[in-house]
Design a protein that fits this description.
Helix 7 runs parallel beside helix 8, helix 11 packs parallel to helix 12 and helix 14 packs across helix 15. The chain is of the alpha+beta class. The termini are far apart. It contains 15 helices and 32 strands. The strands form eight sheets. It has a seven-stranded mixed β-sheet. Strands 10-18-17-16-11-32 form a six-stranded mixed β-sheet. It has a five-stranded mixed β-sheet with strand order 1-31-28-27-19.
Length: 771
């Protein structure tokens, strides 16, 4: 397929290709674990068992901010069946941990900084006993006033020894004195979206004879988790082994070692295997969420609607600890203007500590919040100028060769105009019939109280962008080994498949390169070389690149003897469907015959080109690559009740290259649905820092009935030459773009500004007519 080819598709599950293939790159190869997951035999961490197993429970703070006066564990330790109780005093190594800053204690020792913070942990011979023992621990608190407003965190007393300000980025680009003929302003608020894993956190820790411990859990970054845990245990990294069990999909909820460290401490203390399975409430309280964000914007444009200057202030609520907040802020500030050409930009970004629940990495962190704001600004600008919203966007879109406000040149393919044109020109869905049998199409569903006459349809647009791989100088390296013997290939790579499909991709790469049908991907543990975190599509790029290089090295080992024998170079030989042939047809043999019982193997690394941190003016080449998406949302709104139904989401996406059509469609469909949840229902609510209703009754995930028709109208396969296979990350950018598109459509239907996500019913009630 040519590098500039495009693929038009009518619906998400159907991605027609130019050729039908059974395996290799470009084929819809099913996931190796699909059958096990559907049959219920997939080995999730909650299913693990060991001889002599003990059960763990964690005591968590009921207060968002308090001073710990005393902790009395005697009553818990005396309960029959209790084998160990551990607090901060029992942490033999580093008392705190963190992926960027070691600011989060394993157990709170003097100050509690958020609701649900861990205070102590218990191991017992029965899960009920463990929970009773945890409840029996007597903690005396001096309750303190919580700081829950991030704007007040600047002047509030320090909540942490490191202070309340985690990072400040002032971006300066162009002339600050330039103004436009037309100016629009807005204040926007984005809520706290939870990753809401259907399978709650679970793990098993097993002590080792050498004094170390093995931890079996659904980690997404096992080597980092190992290193953080070892430091807290007071052990060398090689004494701790993390084994990745089945991951039931993951974002931030699998990236908090605070779940694993108490588990390992209990196993080391008792000398027995210890299992911990979080309750749904613990899951909501313990892991990180999307940053709630406050954004102020001012857009300047000329009389034709071309952007002149963007001014913005972005405030991320990090919660109690730093986590990934510095990285999220960098993305928010860098993409504050969106995929538009902006000659002058001045952005102030802050991430601050509060006593709210912890925030961290969730798909599209930083980029999703600013997309909702800058797209709202584009709608305001279009309305003020009397210009079609899609046309206004087309006048300003970014293209390859343009500059970001960070001063970085966009060197990767950036077909933003083509993406927007594709969704704009796609036929609109038909209006629902005025028929009682069509009541289910109304906002609110078949039992809704609305009337058809109160329903208004709205069409809205959004353009989104995300960065791929780590940013600001992150060393993105991965290592992979490929072995082949007796017609069977094995891939060894510590890249965790969190639902991204890396395991399937690795199989396809080896099938494509070596012509071997049977390919196994080894389970992941920290005895293997590091592959890094499963974020930003990095395993498709970096780990997939390492697998490809290793497979090509094995290919050379395989073909070199044949090429030497026939007096030709290996480049003149090809492998197709398990057969090796030469360009002139003289040589024809099978891969199995050429192997002749030998074992061939190779290990390779992939490391993308380096990036650099943003400087004191927010300038720098901070990103390896970018991906773009355009979405047109069609919604029906009951303008009396404020209920919203998303009818259709038309998606056009810049994917670089389609490696697995079915898998790609599923990733886009899931990303759009997650974005719809952020737009309409998902908000982990708090009252003075206390999480309200930490369960699926209080936290409303979109169901199958809420999911709209998702039409993938175009996939642009313009390959990024610096990426292995030319592919781009696929799942984050629709999450970023979808909420802004839904909000845009609700604006169109109601005439309301819609400046908050998720959209509350009162914000979707039609504006009263002007007198």
């Amino acid at each position: 397929m040519s590098s500039d080819a495009t693929t038009a598709v009518p619906t998400a599950p159907e991605v027609p290709r130019q050729e039908e293939r059974e395996n290799g790159l470009g084929a819809s190869v099913p996931a190796a674990d699909a059958r096990a997951k559907t049959e219920g035999t997939f080995p999730y961490a909650s299913d693990l068992w060991a001889e002599g197993l003990l059960w763990a429970a964690v005591l968590r703070s009921p207060h968002p901010h308090a001073r710990i006066v005393s902790i009395d564990t005697s009553a818990a330790a005396e309960l029959p069946g209790v084998r160990a109780v551990v607090t901060h005093a029992d942490v033999p190594g580093d008392p705190a941990y963190g992926r960027t800053v070691a600011d989060r204690p394993v157990f709170a020792s003097d100050i509690v900084r958020h609701h649900g913070e861990a205070i102590a942990a218990v191991a017992a011979d029965h899960p009920d006993t463990a929970r009773l023992a945890a409840a029996a621990i007597a903690v005396e608190y001096e309750v303190l006033e919580p700081v829950t407003d991030p704007e007040k965190a600047f002047a509030a007393p320090p909540l942490h020894p490191d202070g309340n300000l985690i990072r400040h980025i002032p971006l300066r680009y162009g002339d600050p004195d330039v103004t436009g003929e037309v100016i629009v302003e807005g204040l926007y608020r984005i809520g706290r979206q939870d990753p809401a894993p259907i399978g709650a956190e679970a793990g098993l820790a097993v002590p080792r004879p050498d004094g170390g411990v093995e931890i079996y859990t659904a980690s997404t970054d096992p080597h980092t988790d190992r290193d953080l845990a070892a430091a807290c245990f007071g052990l060398a990294p090689e004494q701790v082994k993390v084994v990745v069990t089945g991951v039931p999909g993951a974002t931030s909820d699998r990236e908090d070692p605070g779940f694993q460290i108490p588990l390992g401490l209990l196993a080391l203390r008792t000398g027995c295997p210890v299992k911990l399975t979080a309750t749904r409430e613990e899951s909501f309280l313990g892991h990180a969420h999307r940053h709630p964000t406050l954004l102020r914007y001012r857009h300047h444009a000329d009389a034709e609607g071309r952007l002149v200057k963007v001014e913005a202030q972005i405030l991320l609520d990090a919660g109690a600890y730093a986590d990934h907040s510095a990285e999220s802020l960098a993305a928010a500030v860098s993409f504050a203007c969106g995929p538009y050409v902006v000659p002058h930009a001045f952005v102030e970004g802050w991430a601050v500590r509060t006593n709210n629940p912890p925030s961290g990495h969730v798909r599209g962190e930083g980029a999703m919040q600013v997309c909702a704001a800058y797209e709202a600004q584009m709608d305001k600008l279009a309305a003020k100028l009397g210009v079609d919203p899609a046309e206004l966007r087309l006048r300003n879109v970014l293209a390859t060769g343009d500059l970001l406000p960070t001063g970085q040149t966009v060197t990767c393919p950036a077909p933003v105009a083509e993406l927007l044109g594709a969704v704009r020109d796609f036929p609109l869905p038909p209006l629902p019939l005025d028929d009682p049998e069509e009541d289910w199409l109304l906002p609110g569903g078949p039992e809704g109280a609305g009337e058809p006459g109160a329903v208004r349809r709205g069409v809205g647009y959004a353009l989104g962008m995300v960065h791929m791989l780590g940013a600001e100088g992150a060393d993105e390296v991965s290592t992979a080994t490929v072995k082949v013997q007796d017609g069977v290939a094995t891939v060894i790579c510590a890249a965790v498949d969190t639902g991204s499909g890396f395991g399937t991709l690795a199989r396809q790469i080896v099938q494509e390169t070596l012509g071997v049908d049977e390919v196994h991907v080894a389970s992941v543990d920290t005895d293997q070389p590091p592959a890094g975190a499963a974020t930003h599509g990095r395993h498709t790029w970096v780990s997939g690149g390492a697998v490809e290089r290793a497979a090509k090295m094995v290919r050379t080992q395989l073909l070199q003897p044949l090429a030497h024998k026939f007096g030709m170079s290996t480049e003149l030989l090809q492998i197709t469907d398990g057969k090796i042939t030469s360009y002139d047809g003289v040589l024809s043999t099978t891969v199995t015959e050429a192997m002749d019982g030998k074992e061939l193997w190779a290990t390779a690394q992939c490391r993308p080109h380096p990036t650099e941190p943003l400087d004191e003016s927010g300038q720098g080449d901070a990103f390896v690559g970018l991906a773009f998406c355009a979405i047109r949302a069609v919604v029906d709104v009951d303008i009396e009740l404020g209920s919203v139904r998303v009818v259709e989401m038309a998606v056009a996406q810049d994917v670089g290259r389609v490696l697995n059509p079915a898998q790609l469609a599923a990733r886009i469909e899931a990303g759009v649905t997650q974005g719809v949840g952020a737009a309409l229902t998902e908000n982990l609510r708090t009252a003075r820092g206390v999480v309200r209703h930490p369960d699926f009754m209080g936290y409303a995930l979109p169901t199958a009935l809420d999911a709209p028709d998702i039409r993938i109208v175009k996939l642009i396969e313009e390959r990024d030459v610096v990426a292995p296979f030319g592919a781009k990350a696929a799942s984050a950018v629709p999450v970023v773009t979808a909420p802004a598109a839904v909000a845009s459509a609700v604006r169109a239907a109601t005439g309301r500004p819609v400046n908050r996500l998720p959209i509350r019913p009162q914000a979707a009630v039609a504006a009263p007519p002007t007198s």
